[in-house]
Predict the structure.
Amino acid sequence: MDILFFIISFFASIIGGICGIGGGVIIKPTLDLAGLAGVAAVSFLSSCTVLSMSAYNVGKSFAEKSAVIDTHSGTPLALGAAVGGIFGNKLFSFLKLGLGNDAVAGIAQALCLLVLTLGTLIYTINKKRIRTRSIDSVFACVCIGIALGTLSSFLGIGGGPFNLVVLHYFFSMDTKKSVSNSLYIILFSQIANIAVTLLSHTVPDFTVPSLVLMILGGILGGIIGKAISRRINSGTVDKLFIALQTVIICICVYNAAKYL
């Protein structure tokens, strides 16, 4: 069964590396669908995988001096995402422990992800007709980062498709630039999310082999995803992104019904 953790994280991270969504938005609902672990364990494993994949991609980009990260807006966004990562972690813990019911937490995550992904799909299809903005305020960047970090941490998905929508609409970034900045934001939010989990001693039960295989799959998938991303244009990334969102919506509907 542990090999399934590797397979899911590997292919999810390939797609995540190409689209700049971290892979968690695929890993989380897919693991929920497969029923391989509890809600809290899946969120933690997904976060660890996304962290490993984003760390590799961002580190590699800076090492090769090929990063297209807009540090003026990207760094305040990333720092805000780190703060949001703490908020999202606490929100999930409150929901799970406060209500004492994994199913309720699972339903909340599935429905929230469903709504966000549906909205993102609608935006992506119509984005050529949407007038974008160019926010320059550091304070606004931090606030937006907090919102993104809170959502990604609560959902256990890293950043998800909505990172790309926010970066396109508020900062007029094209797809390729959004991908790099999205992974940069994901890296900070997941560091904070996992750090809070470790420091608060709320790490859920999981098997060590599953964690090792998922991290390995995340890194290997990130390597392949980055290589593919260099060879395709923004239009192809957009088409893959739309197809991916459609699949995620279907999985979220099924998961919500299952928990109900």
